[in-house]
Each structure stands twice: as structure tokens, then as C-alpha cells.
Automatic annotation (TrEMBL):
Keywords: DNA recombination. Residues 145-173 are annotated as: Disordered. The lineage of its organism: Bacteria, Pseudomonadati, Pseudomonadota, Alphaproteobacteria, Hyphomicrobiales. This is Tyr recombinase domain-containing protein. One of its GO terms (molecular function) is DNA binding. GO terms for biological process: DNA integration; DNA recombination. Residues 159-171 have a biased composition (Basic residues). Coiled coil: none annotated. It comes from Bradyrhizobium japonicum.
Length: 192
């Protein structure tokens, strides 16, 4: 599910507390997923296929298709083990909207996989924004994906990267030498 958090720029409480199986490829929109944003009560219908019919999220869709075959209704992501109080798997999020248990499980997985200890579900959302900036998405495209009304919040999520610095430097140099008779020389030196 990290893929969905990263690609759809979702907060963990939205993924585990608002994404219902009925939101994924419903009959009236079989090529989309409904992403609900409880923070601002907005919804976004994300396309699952591009204009040629190619899947946009192949790994995630394979997982969601499998879940949809066995889950009739309710939240998509539930605990994968039984609970003493329930014969069916419980949601990861509690009735009080608490995800501490899930965060503890994630930390155990991070440790067992020998990943950076600071890795968290929040880092997937922020990483998705940074990935978007590195992919040259416009502010408008990032705001649409994250359902932000203003671009003022984007720097909070999209971190600065080496790729952005290099790209910006090249663009500035290209602009500087655009009308110069030394464009060829400058561009050759830049690529060295």
C-alpha cells in the first residue's frame, strides 16, 4: 500500500480509515478509484488507466483486485490476523481513529527489512510529493494530486533534491546563454 500512499499522496488515516472497497472500480466508474479526503471533505476520482488503456498503477491494482475478490464491503485495508474479539479481520484504524498499533507494526517491518529507522508512513506521502517535483510536475498538478488549494504548502511536502538543483542550474544557464553566440560552447562545457 506504500505505492498508493506515494502515488495518490494520501495520509495514513485516509488510507486506513476512509478507503472503502466500494471506492475501487465501482460499477459506475470501473476505470477509477475514489479517493476521499476527510481533512477537507473533498473527493478525487483517480484514473486507473491512461488514454491507451495501460494501467497507471499495475502493482497496486493487482493487490486491490485481489482484495476486492474477497472483501464485499467496508474498509479495504484490515489486519491480516484474527483478533480475540472478532471473527473477521479488524481495521487497522480504531474507532477513535488511532493508528498507533499500525505504526508499531510498520516500525517492526522497517527494522526487520534493515531500512532506515526514520522511515514512516508520513515519509511515503512526502516522498510522493518530492517524486512529483523531480518528475517536473507543475504546482497545479501537485495541488490537484494532493488536493491542496494553495501552493504555499507544497514546500512542506516536496523536499529539495540534487536532481532539482542540477535541473535548475541547467535551465538558468540555458536561459543565460540562449541569445549568445557562445551557446554551443557553453552547452558543451555544461555537459562535460
Amino acid at each position: 500500500m506504500a505505492d498508493g500512499r506515494r502515488k495518490w499522496l494520501r495520509r495514513e488515516e485516509h488510507v486506513f480509515g476512509a478507503l472503502e472497497i466500494s471506492h475501487y472500480r465501482p460499477k459506475e466508474r470501473p476505470n477509477s478509484v475514489r479517493i476521499v479526503h476527510p481533512k477537507n471533505d473533498e473527493e478525487a476520482w483517480w484514473p486507473l488507466f491512461d488514454e491507451t488503456g495501460s494501467t497507471l498503477f499495475p502493482e497496486l491494482m493487482a493487490e486491490l483486485n485481489e482484495i476486492k475478490q474477497t472483501t464485499v464491503s467496508g474498509l479495504v485495508f484490515r489486519r491480516d490476523h484474527s483478533h480475540r474479539r472478532s471473527p473477521t479481520p479488524l481495521p487497522w484504524i480504531t474507532a477513535k481513529q488511532d493508528l498507533r498499533y499500525l505504526r508499531g507494526v510498520v516500525k517492526k517491518i522497517v527494522h526487520a527489512a534493515d531500512l532506515r529507522e526514520e522511515l514512516s508512513f508520513t515519509s511515503f506521502r512526502h516522498g510522493g510529493f518530492t517524486e512529483g517535483v523531480d518528475s517536473d510536475l507543475t504546482d497545479a498538478e501537485l495541488r490537484a494530486a494532493g488536493r491542496h488549494r494553495s501552493s504555499r504548502q507544497l514546500p512542506t511536502y516536496a523536499k529539495r533534491t540534487r536532481k532539482q538543483l542540477i535541473s535548475g542550474t541547467k535551465k538558468r544557464r540555458e536561459e543565460k546563454y540562449k541569445d549568445s553566440r557562445f551557446v554551443g560552447i557553453a552547452m558543451t562545457r555544461l555537459s562535460e
